[in-house]
Amino acid sequence: MNEFNAATTGYDPRNALWLGKVAALAYKDITSVVQALPGWDVTPFAHEATDTWGFVAGNSQLIVISFRGAEPDKLKAWLTNLKAELVDGPVGKVHKGFHEAIDGVWQEFVTILRRMRQNGQNIWITGHGLGAALALLASVKLLNEKVTTSIEGLYTFGQPRTGDTDFAAWLDSGMKSRTFRFVNNNDIVPHVPLPPLYKHAGTFFYFDSDGKLQGDVGFWRFLKERLKGKVKSLFDKEIVPDEIYDHSMKSYLTRLENNVGVTTAPLPLSD
To answer: Which in 221, 245, 254, 268 has the greatest CB count within 10 A?
Structure first.
C-alpha cells in the first residue's frame, strides 16, 4: 500500500485504489491494520453503543482516516434503520443514526487527530457503506468546527445519502472537487434514504455493468446499465442478489484495480 499521490487534491486512480484498500481495512482488527501500514502511527476509535469503529493513521506526510461500514450480517437491519428522520446537523439536516454515531466517537476522534497532526499533514478520509456516510459527515464537521481548514481528499464507496439539500450544498460549495463518490452498478445502498428529503453530494463515479468507470451516462443509460448488471448476475447464477453483491467492498476493490489506469475524472451525474 505505497502508491499514493499526496501532492494532488484532484482525482487520482491510484489514490482511489489505495483509499479503497484503507476503507476495506476498517473491517479488520487493529493488528491487521497495523501490519498493513508498517511504520505508521495507527490509533483506533470506537463507540460501543452505536457500533461505530474506525482508525486514524499518520506518518510525516499525511493522515488517513477510515470509518467501518455495517458488517455483512447486519446490512439488512442497517438498511431498515435508514428510514430514520432528519435532525439538525453541523450544517443543514442529517440522518439521525449517522449523527448519533459521529457524536459517539467525536471527542476521542478529534483528540487522536490533533495529537497525530503535529506537522500540518494533509488529511484524507475514506469509508464504505455506513462508513462512507460517517466519513462524509466527519469531513463536514471537521471543516465547520475549524478543526482543520482543509481536507485534501474524501473518497467514499457505496455511500448512502447522508443529509438534506442544505447539507449537500454546503459540502459541494467547498469540497466537490475533492469529494469522490463511487457507486458499483446495482449497489442498493447509494439509493437510500430516498430523495427529495435526502440528497447526495460530491463528484459521482459509476462502475457500469462491465466494471468500467463512467461519468455522466444519463438517466436512460444508467437504467440500462443497471438492468444489464442484473441480467448478467442471473446468467452467472449468483446466489447473493446483485444489489447486495455490488455493495461488497471486495467488488469495489476489483473495479478499482481494473480501472487504475483511467485518469480522467468522470463528470458529475445527477441523483
So the answer is: 245
The mean of the pLDDT values for the chain is 87
CB 120 within 8 A of CB 148: no
- Which residues does 92 contact at the CB level (< 8 Å), separation at least 6? 163, 164, 165, 166, 167, 168, 169, 170
Q: Please check whether residue 69 is in contact with residue 27, taking contact to mean a CB–CB distance below 8 angstroms.
A: yes
Let me know: does 98 contact 192? Beta carbons within 8 Å. Answer: no
**Distance, CA of 241 to CA of 38 (rounded, Å):** 37
Q: Where are the domains of the chain?
A: 13-258
Q: In this structure, which amino acid lies at residue 63?
A: I
User: What is the distance between the alpha carbons of residues 258 and 150, in angstroms, rounded to a whole number?
Assistant: 30
What does each C-alpha distance from 173 to 98, 121, 124, 179 come to in angstroms?
A: 22, 23, 18, 11
Specify which residues 93 forms β-bridges with: 88
Contact 159, 136 (CB under 8 A): yes
The pLDDT tens digits of the residues spanning 89-117 come to: 999 999 999 999 999 999 999 999 999 99
The CATH number assigned to the domain with range 13-258 reads 3.40.50.1820
